[in-house]
UniProtKB/TrEMBL annotation:
A single BP term in Gene Ontology: methylation
Ranges for domain Methyltransferase: 21-105
Transmembrane annotation, as ranges: none
Domain of life of the source: Bacteria
Molecular-function annotations in GO: methyltransferase activity
Keywords: Methyltransferase, Transferase
Protein name (Swiss-Prot/TrEMBL): Methyltransferase domain-containing protein
InterPro entries, A to Z: Methyltransf_25, SAM-dependent_MTases_sf
Pfam families: Methyltransf_25 (PF13649)
Length: 182
């Protein structure tokens, strides 16, 4: 597991307005620490207590929750988070509830493995791989406006097939989505 911040998250994190951020399936907390450094209070969620111990830091509240456990319910209320960051994780039953927790002007930053990743190794189970255009459809179905999307092979931190999305809720101001050039 890499401690390097995803370039995708790093690029779009400055769009997240003031407020709390959820780092879902946070692992060792690389993105939780980044969002806290940007001034956000962060809720870092993972099912691994050892990973959460590594994720601890100023401005970060950790929560050990196994969201895939039988009968598990979404632990967060509506409109709670200014931003939600998800990397290298996909559990489709959570998506609708997760997006309900996004504030009306909130930002979703999502990056995970896609169909075709088996050629590079794990994950290879289709349950953990996005289908072509799946993140775009998710955004459309939930009324999000897409700021950026990518679907293809990445070389770092290791070769993988990924989809990446940055999308915003309807109250997010369009002019706030302007980013500095690469």
């Amino acid at each position: 597991m890499s401690d390097q911040i995803s370039p995708w998250v790093q690029r779009y994190a400055p769009l997240v307005p003031g407020g709390a951020v959820l780092d879902l399936a946070c692992g060792n907390g690389r993105h939780a620490r980044h969002m806290a450094a940007l001034g956000h209070e962060v809720v870092a969620v993972d099912r691994d207590p050892a990973a959460l111990a590594a994720a601890c830091g100023a401005g970060i509240t950790t929560s050990c929750i196994d969201l895939e456990e039988a009968g598990a319910a979404w632990a967060f209320g509506p409109h709670r988070f200014a931003g939600i960051v998800v990397t290298n994780y996909l559990h489709r039953p959570l998506i609708a509830d997760m997006l309900t927790s996004l504030a009306p002007n909130g930002v979703l930053i999502y990056e995970t493995f896609a169909d075709g990743n088996a050629q590079f190794g794990k994950p290879s189970n289709p349950a953990f791989l996005l289908q072509p255009g799946e993140l775009l459809e998710l955004a459309r179905a939930h009324g999000l406006r897409v700021v950026a999307f990518e679907d293809g092979v990445t070389a770092t931190p290791k070769a993988a097939m990924v989809q990446r999305l940055c999308a915003v809720k309807p109250d997010f101001p369009r002019e706030a989505a302007l980013l500095p050039p690469f």
